[in-house]
Hints:
By secondary structure, the chain is mainly α. The chain has 2 domains: about 60 residues; about 55 residues. It contains 4 helices and no strands. The longest helix has 27 residues. The relative contact order is 0.08. The model has no long low-confidence stretch (mean pLDDT about 80).
Amino acid sequence: MSKKNSFPHLVAFRVDDPTHTMLATLAEVAGVPVGIWVRALVLKAVDSKMKAPKVRRAAANAIQLDAILDELKAQGRNINQIARASNANPSAAQIAADVAIIRAALEALVSRVLDLLGIDGDA
């Protein structure tokens, strides 16, 4: 058996529309393709010791998380601007106000990320 084809046996079967819809939905929730999800179920059911290939999972709420990442980048640019401005003309009151605004924005982003990931903020 070559390295390229370390799993030489193909197992395939057909399912009806309602079953496929359920499988597709559950696989989507898990963030993996249907075949990968079904294979994991089968391997678990037969107590297989086979090491399935690693699959890069799709992130849940990827669109929202991408938007949050863009906002974090913007906040990073704001912090850089504050640092440059404070080095050029230090005014403690203005710097403190700017930092407070950015801190509030970052706390809101953290809250959104925790909500999207389904994590309690107190955890």
